[in-house]
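Hey, resending since the last one bounced:
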Amino acid sequence: MTLFDEKNSSHQPALDLLQTIGWKYLPPEEVLSLRKNNTSEVLLETVLWEQLKNLNSVFRNGEIFEFSDANLREAILTLKSVPRDGLLRENEMVYNILTLGKSFEQTLGGDKKSYSLHYIDWQHPENNIYHVTEEFTVQRSGTNEHYRPDIVLFVNGIPLVVIECKRPNLPDGQDPLKQAISQHLRNQKTDGIQQLFQFSQILLAVSGDQAKYGTVGTAENFWRLWKERNTPDFLQTEQDKLIWSLCRPERLFDLIRRFILVDGGIKKIAQYQQYFCATKILDRIKRKDENGQRPGGVVWHTQGSGKSLTMVFLARALVLEPDILNYRIVLVTDRIDLDEQIKKTFANCGVDVRRATSGNDLVELLRNTSSTVITTVIDKFEAAAGKQGVTLNDPDIFVLVDESHRTQYGLIHAKMKKTLPQACYIGFTGTPVLQKEKNTVVKFGGIIDAYPLTQAVDDGAVVPLLYEGRDMKKSVNQPDIDLWFERETQGLTDEQKADLKKKYSRSEILYRTEPVIKAIAWDIQNHFVTNWQGTPFKAQLIAPSKSAALCYKKFFDEWKKISTEVLISAPDTREGNISLWEENKIAVNNFWKHTVGQSGKYSTEKEYNRIVIDNFKNGTPDNSETNVELIIVVDKLLTGFDAPRNTILYLAKSLRDHSLLQAIARVNRRFEGKEYGYVIDYRGISTNLGEALDLYNSLNGFDVADLDGTLTDVRKIIDTLPQAHAVLISTFNPCSHGTNGKKKRNIEQYIRLLDDEELRLKFYERFTGFAKTLGIALSNADFLQTQEKKVEYYKKELEFFKELRLSVRRRYAEIIDFSEYEARIRKLLDTHLQAGETEIITGRINLTDVVQRQKLMNMPDTSEAKAETIANNLKRVISERWESDPALYKRFSEMLNELISNIRAGRLQSVAALQEAEKAEKIIVQGMDETVPVQIQHKPLAVAFYHNIRNDLCTMMTETDCAALADQLQTIIQKHQSVHWKTHSDILKQIEQELDDTLFENGITDVNTVDKIINQCLNIAKHH
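The structure tokens again:
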């Protein structure tokens, strides 16, 4: 055991801290006893029974009555017997029981009524009992095998928190947190230990200076960091900080009760910025001014960081706030689609919402004190304030205004204030506040909480955005435009043509012409097909008008390279084709007629929206019939549209202010393997971000600091390519390598250098960094056109280091987890090297698999290289089997190290090296150890005992007698190997006693030798 093993570096520090903050330690054997030695059960029923009695009673007619034993038994059975309906649904049912309690009929004084029983006292944490245990053994479903989560926290005997600990210095490039999270997810599968996760509410993955949290069903990509606002000085590591922040009883109760919800079938727990924002607002609104009004204000949480869920968490917290009675919560948006979306979000989270269908309906809902949560479009306040003149003076009305930058500060806001003068107004925005609006914001309470883009990117809540401007002047064919103009203006006088040309010269009109649309569409198609097609990632095109959107669609359909859909709102069918430079309503009307309605593909607009959006959000390359790679929009889906696969935004429409910031945020959502969102701008007139934004003149109304990190010029990333390449090259400084690829590299020398595991991990990291940066560069038109020589050089370098990575992984028997970036890197290799398919070969060879072994022998390596590959694979096998026979595998490990050393020193000829490796393989993999006495050769456990006790007994016994003793020891242990023997203290004591007696009977009386042999045999048997 070392300071860096899992126990010392992560597991024990976690246990120590948990006991410091109020959790009582229970040893595993005591926990097993409390479970009546039944590892398929996870409740500590004895503890739960006592707590149910302590926490629950009925006060009636001045007397206190306890719940009957029958009701207590029924309460426990109810908790244990939720209907089988999939883990997430079962967990949700248990959550509702734990947070809401359960009613049971009780007869008191001859009167039978239902009374609520509670499993946890949420209001008074001190009334509950807190236990922590380790190595919590739980039987897997449908098998006699077990999983053992590292640490489990029980409240009143109910397992609410599960913690997986990993040592920081895992081998082979493994990420400790990924491994811990993977273990959580494995345990939640149907063949795992779902009975534990039915009850679990918070899950932690910790490893010293790394720590993340999630809940049941949280995918790896959505486990989060927690950044506490204030932590004690004694907390040294991120693991300590996370445990202290989330597992202190008061905080744990607050998080579970108010900040966990189910959103559309997915269980979610608040991120730290959501939690602190909601609690800050709650503290704020408990105060009232001299007029009895609660202070309001504005929340700025960057797009994509969960702003809508913050509103839900706040609403739920208000509902549970004991000091605020007869509350009403009004959720206000400025568009119907956002109103529908916010209602759906709340409904998905189990919050009952009433949606105002008209101004009159809004008035009735506001007057009805039983309508606790209402959604409305802000325009409906005009009817309430104007036509009916309604005024409701109630400080317990809370108005939450979504995307408040468009509505919070204008005339309509005044009408809201007129209708609800005493209400508390909380505005939510995903974009910074304009300078001209800041004084107004102060009047409404100021900024309550800010979570800017830079912080969200740093936390991994969203991905950063790369900007690339594309100058279409190089692509637009002026003769084509002139021909189009002449054709469209036939019949007009010269004066009319001159007037039209003047209007037509505006850039907005230019971008609606067919030749320009065609040029941009061609560029978009090439860009997407070359860089993104075949990956999980999608693109969104913002067109300047509905008819322009249809024109884009027409060209994409003609070329048949990418699958596209148009999503627009219904046209005003009374209008026609008014003029050349305005919307072509006839084309739009015809499209709508053939898309929606009796003669259309979709029966209603709602169905059209739902199916197109679903195919875009969830379609994948392996289902070409429903997969939408590119969605073309005009105004729809520019705000509040959450599609994690959406990665590239093609901007062909001029946007300003908040509209621009809202639109570009469509591609900042996280998705596995997605490192950046890309904004490809065809309207900035410049390839330079700064110049483009100056020409837009669209973001000048914001403070520069507020816009920090909004977009990063792709050129800044491309400028780092030489450095990324130089860093990669520097990995191999001890080797001889040429300049600019002119001198041939010695790949064997490179591979041998990477025998150093730490250096090998650096190489993998640096190769991935170089490949990602090169991928960004190769997607940039300007780089491809102006740096042709560098392009070819870097592509050759990519080819070389890709092959090197493959050879290294094979030689050292590794599987490194590149899954997060695999799709993009493979796309890069496929597109630019036409050799990406070789990347699917892994380094680890199953030496018992004839096909894999033959593949290894057929590879064009030298015999020495093949021998070394076999030896490294054997070292992996030894590492995996070590605990089952330490003495044997120590000897084999030394033999392999000597073999590898002899190969590298050239002391073995090619054929001899391979023969020695295959001889070692025969012994280690097939277990053909001819040095073992024949009487136990076919008894693996006895053989392992023999290897490990022989040296201690060599002066007392012959090899034959030692083998006979090993056989006896095996018989004793196998006799007691029931399902739970490894953790059952009584069984282990019985085994130890019989082993002790047997050793004594064989003349072994030295106490230290006896203890050593017993410990060795038990440890080997547990791992066999």
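The CA atoms of residues 658 and 1011 lie 74 Å apart.

Sorry for the duplicate.
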